[in-house]
Amino acid sequence: xxxxxxxxxxxxxxxxxxxxxxxxxxxxxxxxxxxxxxxxxxxxxxxxxxxxxxxxxxxxxxxxxxxxxxxxxxxxxxxxxxxxxxxxxxxxxxxxxxxxxxxxxxxxxxxxxxxxxxxxxxxxxxxxxxxxxxxxxxxxxxxxxxxxxxxxxxxxxxxxxxxxxxxxxxxxxxxxxxxxxxxxxxxxxxxxxxxxxxxxxxxxxxxxxxx
Length: 211
What we know:
It is a single chain. By secondary structure, the protein is an alpha/beta fold. The protein has helices spanning 7-18, 20-28, 38-50, 82-93, 111-114, 128-141, 189-209; strands spanning 30-34, 54-58, 98-102, 120-123, 146-150, 163-168, 171-175. It has one domain: NAD(P)-binding Rossmann-like Domain (Rossmann fold), CATH 3.40.50.720. Strands 3-2-1-4-5-7-6 form a seven-stranded mixed sheet, sandwiched between helices. The longest helix is centred in the C-terminal third of the chain and has 21 residues, at 189-209. The mean pLDDT is 94.
């Protein structure tokens, strides 16, 4: 079916729904998603559906059965690289989105080279050490880049406890900033996705604010 849809038709429908100026800004934006688990897979799909034209997907891991309960992947994708699996899903729902894949584990040694071309960076890591390393390098090397991070989405607490806060210039955090797996709280798909969509929506808002 997707091979019957032209690029012009695809974007015309977005123009009709979102407006031409809005969609044009989304098409030109370059967004990196660092980590493709529960947060990252949902962020990427939300951005692709919204018309983001350039997505950079970064992860080193494979899809496992345990991922299916709280991530966007399918059973038939178990064993595939998360980058490849998520690219497949995006191709099915947003076939004209340009997707760049980096099968890598971000570290202090490669963050600079991997993220050079991206204007907006979504952090979607599991480990606090990885979050801190990314924040430090982006802040020190690219103060002009937008960094949207996540902190606190575990458990079954009310959805409205998840907030979006501006921490500094071009630096934002989404989440309740208190719930954590270390407290024995589970990660459940609905609450993780709420946080992911806070991140995705903020990226869209910031793109529209840019001249």
